[in-house]
Amino acid sequence: MGIFNRSHAQILAVAASCVIAFYFIEFNFHNCPEELTVEVPITSTFSPSPISPPGQCTCPKGSIFLRDQLPEDHKDELIQRRAKELQQHKNRTMSVLSRLLFALPNSPLRYPIQGFIVRPLTATLIPGLALYAGQRDNYKVSLSVSKGILTTKFSAEGVTVQGDGETHLTLESNSLVVLNNLLSNMFYTSTVYHIHTGDLVSFTFENHEAWFPIIIKQPQMPVLYDMGTDISSHVTITTKTFVRYQQLKVMLNSIQLFYSNIKVIIADDSFKPEKITGENIQHYIMPPAQGWFAGRNLAVSQVTTKYFLWVDDDFVFTEKTKIEKLVEVMEAVPELDVVGGAVQGDQFYFSLIYEEGEEGDGGCLDRKSKVKFHSLPSYPQCSLVSGVVNFFLARTDAVQKVGFDPKLQRVAHSEFFMDGLGSLLVATCSHVSIGHQRQQRNNQYVRYRHPPKNDENMKKQLHFFKNYLKCVRFG
């Protein structure tokens, strides 16, 4: 089920319009005399241009200005390294496909505008190329590319082909039908291997010029999970523990009551690890005090099921902890990556509002607690958000691609969803809940639970450099 669906009537109406339009175009083209008699007004050319860089973003009231958190003796050096890394990031993530293209009115040129994908180094037919022009003594079109070559595999009398097998190709004929036959047999081959980039084609006739994109992409093999027949083959429970074995054992006992067959993975960085045994329990011992995100990485790396359920070690499963209901939502809306529930009946969630800002300064981020985007179609008890509480079901492969930054050792939860912004589609649901154990005094845990000031400063400097932020507000 798609998140945004049109009604069947709308879809049928659009489809019917497209069929009718296609019929008239194809009928006129294939049944026309040798020269079309409809003249198209001459228009000026328009070259593609990069999207205008974003303007300066506005820091919301109460923001932390991250540049002020940098050490004075290294500030200039950090800013220079950050700018260099940003350019490397853009080189990796941007291509000509990011350029803004305009379709000019009354063009006699037909060409693909979306969805033309080619495999690297593979000759591929360019679909839909054609010229619609009034009667002339001679017709001449040109095509140009930059990351490949153009070839035509159709020969005919009365036509001149220049540049076959090169980056710039010209076709000229006194017959429009013959010219269009050649255009319908035009092939593009990329000449540089790249797994995901693009090329722009310039298509010209007289004073008319059109641009259209070619996506060069290595097809990916799907990575599928066998869901099996029961919940234990759908989900693995994961947790991270640190010197809280009493709470951990309570949580494990509660899992046994409701989901005795589900595998539980525990990442443990306690100073004096205790042996945790039990059916379907995997206990991984880490070096001491490595931190929460390092433990999350370890636990999630060992998951072999399609989904994992993240829980804190002081949670407790109840009759309201229905993992199946979260799986149902994820299966019904496959675009989702993370679905959070409630803890003690209380939902914690937030939305992230991010503006890129100017390149020299960085972006502005505003975390808005208890703010949703909108409800999930067919699941009114669920809403789309940016981040959720530490009780969530997640798609294993999606979370593994984002990962948890091990530099963040103590208090760090929003940071995972900040790193996943734009990659992870997140929802919160109120109809699935987990319990929380009563707090017990643990001096050793408390000492590590609350970070010192230098940890907070490190986190702010990390946001400045890694996330290229100018300011951030945690509302």
What are the salient characteristics of this protein?
475 residues, alpha+beta, six-stranded mixed β-sheet, 10 helices, 28% strand
Structural overview:
With 475 residues, this protein is α+β, with helices and mostly antiparallel strands. It has helices spanning 8-30, 75-93, 176-183, 245-258, 292-301, 323-332, 396-402, 414-419, 443-449, 453-465; strands spanning 64-65, 109-110, 117-118, 124-125, 130-131, 139-144, 148-152, 159-162, 168-173, 186-190, 196-205, 208-217, 235-241, 264-268, 281-285, 307-310, 315-316, 338-343, 349-355, 363-369, 374-376, 379-385, 387-388, 392-395, 426-436, 469-474. It has 10 helices and 26 strands. Strands 13, 14, 15, 16, 17, 18, 21, 22, 24 and 25 form a 10-stranded mixed beta sheet that branches. Strands 3-12-11-6-9-8 form a 6-stranded mixed beta sheet, with helices on one face. The protein has a 5-stranded mixed beta sheet with strand order 1-26-20-19-23. A hairpin with a 5-residue loop joins strand 8 and strand 9. The longest helix has 23 residues, at 8-30. The model is unreliable at 4-46 (pLDDT under 50).
